[in-house]
Amino acid sequence: MAVDIGGTKIAAALVAxxxxxxxxxxxxxxxxxxxxxxxxxxxxxxxDLDATxxxxxxxxxxxxxxxxxxxxxxxxxxxxxxxxxxxYPIVELLRTAVPGVPxxxxxxxxxxxxxxxxxGGAEVRALLGMVVSTGVGGGxxxxxxxxxxxxxxxxxxxxxxxxxxxxxxxxxxxxxVEVYASGPxxxxxxxxxxxxxxxxxxxxxxxxxxxxxxxxxxxxxxxAAFDRGARAxxxxxxxxxxxxxxxxxxxxxxxxNGAADLLLEPIRTGLAAIAGLEFIRRVRIRASTxxxxxxxxxxxxxxxxATTPSPARSRE
Length: 316
What we know:
Elements lengths: L1 E4 L3 E7 L5 E8 L6 H14 L3 H6 L4 E5 L3 E2 L4 E2 L12 H8 L5 E5 H12 L6 E7 L3 E7 L2 E2 L31 H4 L1 H10 L15 H9 L3 H25 L3 E5 L1 H21 L3 H4 L2 E4 L5 H13 L11
Parallel strand pairs: 1-4, 4-7, 8-11, 11-12
Antiparallel strand pairs: 1-2, 2-3, 5-6, 8-9, 9-10
Helix pairs in contact: 4-11, 6-8, 7-8, 7-9, 8-9
């Protein structure tokens, strides 16, 4: 069983050990500061699967992917976008709901990377998954194992510094990838440079979709915003590849899903422009083939990993 907890929705699925999603459900994530209300939503997503018999007889493990911060050792989560949960014992909640099976926890970006590794179709040993959306996150999978770090915080590629003299990031750092490449950051920069939403591109929204429409229509500031974000992502990929010798980088998230045509080639071009070492230059960069399902599939693989030595490698 897989559970994917985000600030907008909570999704759950029954997933076969070959990656087929047998049944799924989704409920909105409650706002406010009532922790029990959010917990009830998680339990409601499980109930919506209408899978009592399956839970009793067929579920081998539960994998949870959650927005962070989180502490995998303590089994708690404190998602920035779910203010009701601070050090919330999500693992304990799921152990009570689905007794007698292992329960595993990882970050949502880590689960996205693991899902792409497991079901994305590429034969790789080292994969970086990047989620470019309202923020920038990710995860690294090496030889079939997602790298969580001591507490679960590994993979925060959005907070790699790509310009030490760059703008301050809300995290407290300076020049982070996220302040260049997240959807809100690109829109903010474009507006500072004089871009205004309007109907010239057929879209009036002051958001990433509106910015993308203007970029496709030839607006130079909108296009420059995407190029600027792409250069930051490329610099982060170069750093990550130098550190762990990546085979492949998979890009997902709302910004990439809606504007892959504006980002992928500039990212590849940006990498080629600054990478010197051959093993970095040959890193493959592609868009996610799984979309929103990557996180659920990664959570399922995470749970399966608690029952076998290296489950995500069953496809090899």
